[in-house]
Every structure is written in structure tokens, then in C-alpha cells.
Structures
1.
Amino acid sequence: MAARNDDRETRRRRRLDEARKSIHAGQTARRRRDDVRAGIVAVVVIALAVVSQVVYTSSGPGAEQPASTAAPTPTPSATSTGEVPSSDIAEDRVWTGSIVLNDDVPLEISLDGTKAPQATSVLVDLIRSGFYDGTACHRLSDAPSAEFLQCGSANGDGTGDAGFTFGPLENVPSDGTYPAGTIAMARGDDPNSQSTQFFITYGETTLDTSTGGYTVVGSVTAGLDGLASSIADGGVEPPAEGQESTDGPPVVETTITAATIE
């Protein structure tokens, strides 16, 4: 009898031991899965932060470009994507119209279809379709040598477009000087990455010529003082408490409330 009891107790202890091992293995596996998930989440968060920063700084004047010791980049042949409006829209003529910011800052504009037919055609088509109505001007620079307001992203934060990019560059100033009132197309590293974004200089602006420059598509013919006093004079949002910046979102939130062309 004692032997049978000893056998039962041995089997009971063995089952308990096996159960503890099974529970421990399960807990270990769960901890490993949780660690893996946490690692993946951390990587995704970091990646999104990096992508967000790249998206914001890689379109328009002042974007980081590869170092170059060569002569200014020659204008490349066009490599467009998506359905780009036909360059024939420009009709080889000068177009006039207006852009109104925040309801009370009207700008009279002129777009030169003789010097920049492709870029003019794009802006004419986008204005006609109402693409810009209600979009934000997400970027302001008030550096001494770079005074401009950048607008035209579909999402109003420097991201989004109308589903196309285009090139080549047109009507680029050889000396990198963009006088006050210039309207030029923003772009990323690739000269053929022009899309819907543009910038307006409210003071003389000098930009790097080594990467090809920026297409000058037209000019502001009236109302520039209002842009400077009502929007640019408000400055740029500081990146962090106690810091200053010359390039970032404007303190005065700015929206294109109307745009016309004829």
C-alpha cells in the first residue's frame, strides 16, 4: 500500500513539475512576443518621425541637397509622373489673376506662359479646378537672404499633391536671385519633382544654384506689402521653447481662400 501511495505521489509531483515548466515556457514565449512587438512599434514610430521630417524639408527652396563641387546642374530632360496638365494650356501668353490669403490679403498675380509654359499650364489648370481653395500656406522663411511663403500642398502641411510630378525646370535665374514678388515652383531633390507647391518671395531671395534652381513661373504685381505686414511680420513658429527659427510654419496661420486666373 505504501509503495502505491509513493508511486501516486511521484506521478503527482511529476505532473506538477511538468505543468510549472509548461506555464514558465508560455510566459517566456509571451514575454518574447511582447518584446518583439514593442521593438516593432518603436521602430515604426521612429521611422514615421524621420519620414515626416524628410517630407517637410525636402520640397521647396532650402531643402537639403547633395554636396556638389561641380558647375550648376544643367536642366535635365523631362521625366514626369501621373497625368500632368498639357503645356498647351499656357497658350504662349501671359495670364493674370489673383490669390487671396486669409480673406483680406489680396495678391494680384501674373503667370508667364511664354517663359514657363509647363509650369504656367499646371498652375492655370489647378486654379481653374479650385485645387488651391482652402489649402494652407505651411512654410515661411524670414532669413535675411531668403524671404518667402510656400503654399500649395494638398494636405496643407507640405504633403500631398494632385497625383503628378513634372519637369524640366524652366526660366531659372542663373545667379540664383529671386526678386521680391517672384512666384516660383517648389520641388524636392529631383528637378522633375515639381508638382502643386509654389513659393512667393516677399523680399529679395538668393538660393543655391548648384542643384538646378527653381522655375520662375510669374510674379505678384500688387499686394505684396499686405503679405509682408499681415503674415510675414508675424514670424515663424519656434521649433521648441526658448529657441528661434527662420524657417517653419508661419505664426499667422495662412490659408488660400480664393484664387482666380484669366
2.
Amino acid sequence: MFNIPEQFSSVAKANLEAQLSLITSLTTKAFESVEKVVDLNLNVAKASLEDSSIAAKQLLSAKDPQEFFSLTAAQAQPAAAKAIAYGRHLAGIATSAQAEFSRATEEQIAEAGRKVSALVEDVSKNAPAGSENVIAIVKSALGNANAGYEQFTRSTKQAAEVMEANMNAAVNQFTQAAEKTANRARK
């Protein structure tokens, strides 16, 4: 007697449990990332308030317009550097979260693929005569699905790498522009 329905039920239950575990893991990681962003923003806001207070006091104590503009220029570079550091930190949090999401998803999909392949192999051993074509079609479909997933994963990784490279290039360009502006202001 074949116990194929029980096998499918067992695999379906295991996959559901794995998906719930994945969702829990991803949700936890998402909350951790949000917590990091909130913490970063609170620290930046606090530091910004302190810096603004100090800058305002310095600007109000300026004795003439030249000193006022000199103080303003001197404050531009540290502000730009802090903005760049903030952007890099924020990008680091996002990159870390994306990498963790990708890793967890890849592991889950690979495990599900292994379970389904094992089930198909087990069922094919006990399949009635004449069902070889159906089993071959199922195996082919699984192979095609795995190949499609692998291509999607590669494309997603490439897109993430391009996005990260573009972010780094933008930060570097902003840094160079801020340094040029600060150097001109000093002269």
C-alpha cells in the first residue's frame, strides 16, 4: 500500500513550519533594523541640536560680517562630514538587513527544494508501473523551477551590488564636493 498522501502531508506540514520560522526570523531582523535606524536618528538628532546650539552662539558672537561668514564656512565641512557619516551608517544598516533577508530566504528555499526533491525521489521509487513519464515531467519541472530561482537569486544579488556601488559613488561625490566647497570658503 502506498502512503503518498501521508508523505505529502508530512512535507506540507514541514514546509509550513519552515515558512513560519522564516517569517518570524525576517520579522525579527526587520525590527532589529528599524531599531538601529531609530537609534541612529535619535543620536543624530541629539548631536544636531547640540551642534546647532553651539553654532548659533558662535554666529551671534561674531563681531563683523567677515567673521560671521568665516564661522559659517568653518561649520560647513563638519556638517557635511556628519551627513556623509550618517548616510554611510544608514546604508550599512540597510545592506546588513538586505543580506540577512537574502541569506534566510535562500536557506529556506534550498531546504524546501531538498525536501520536495526527496519526496519526489521517494514517491518515484514506489510509483506504479507506467508512471515514469509523469515522474520525469515532475522532476523536469522541479529542475526548471530551481534553475529559475537560481537565476533570480543571481540577478537580485547583482542588483543589490549595483545599488550599493551607486550609493558609495554618490557618497564619495558628495564628500568631494563638500571638501571643495569648504576649501573655497576657507580661501
3.
Amino acid sequence: MEDVATADTMVFSGWLIAIIIGALAGWLAGKMVAGGGFGFLGNTVLGIGGAILANWALPLIGVDFGAGFFGSVVSASIGAAVVLLLIRIIKRV
């Protein structure tokens, strides 16, 4: 029974870390995608979405930046930049 509780806690903490790192990544993505930002709050929300997207999609396609803080920030920043670019493309259409 303790193994199930530990696994649930690890999954929750992984997503919580992805959200916190996503906020940082959103800010970085706003700086990387010139002219595509939505302000600090908007970029933070997009960064969280991008971090969740990257946390799910990048391992599916075999991309791994390693464990730890740096790898998480890199993958979350890529996810946030992709989300930011997609929204920018949609806004133009």
C-alpha cells in the first residue's frame, strides 16, 4: 500500500516541478520569441502549458535532455516556445 502512495506522490511532485519550471520557461520563451510575448503573466501561463506539453511529448519522440533542473528548463523552454509560436501563427490566420 505504501508503494502506491509513494508512486502517486512522485507523479504529483513531478507535475508540480514541471509547473514551477514552466513558469520560468515561459519567461525565457518570451525572450526567445521576439515580438511574440503576451506579457509576464501570459508568458508564464504559456510556459506552464509548454512545460506540460514538453513533459509529455518529448519523451514520446525520443528526445531527452537529461534529468535535473537544467534538462527540465531546456525541455520546458522548448515546449513554451513551440506553444508561443503556434499561438502566434494562429493569431495571424
4.
Amino acid sequence: MPRLADPMPGETLAVAVRVKPGASRARVGGRFDGPHGPALVIAVNAPAVDGRATEAARRALAGALGVRPAAVSLRTGAASRDKLFDVEHPDSGLVEVLRRLRDGSDR
């Protein structure tokens, strides 16, 4: 299983995400073992049409990590539920925030 490591200053942090479009309640949290490794689950209200779910997931990820939406960009997976997002210029605590969201606070 890949281990999250703190990125070096100026680098990007790749975040694997599993998007659940059309959810009755938007939520960020949980784990899905997908094609990009352990992924953070993001449920969004937006439908999987014309990139709306991807955009909603990008914004939800930014909000959950406490970064500007402009700092989060899609690397791969535009037409898939399994996506890789890049977070530009992550600070040292971001990896721990991501770990808590994905794996829970007890790990």
C-alpha cells in the first residue's frame, strides 16, 4: 500500500479520489481502494454530466483540505469516478489532514 509522504516545498501533492455523483448529501471522507491506490471518497450533489461532478469534487476537495480551489487541478480521470487531483504548493500539515479524511482519525 502506498504511503503518503510530505511533499517537498514547491511540489504538488497527488490525491487519489473516488467521486460519487448525484449524492443526496455532499460529503468528503472515507476510503476506496481504487486503481490509483487508496482514494479519498467525495460525494457530491452534482450529476455526472458535462464535468459538473468533477468540478464539484475539485471544490469540495479544496474546501476539505483548506486550500484555494485554484490550487487544486485535475490530473487524470475526467470521465471516470476514479480521479487524480494535484494540489499545488501543499504545506507540511496537508498530508495529515488528507490521511484523517481518508482513513479516519483513529489510524
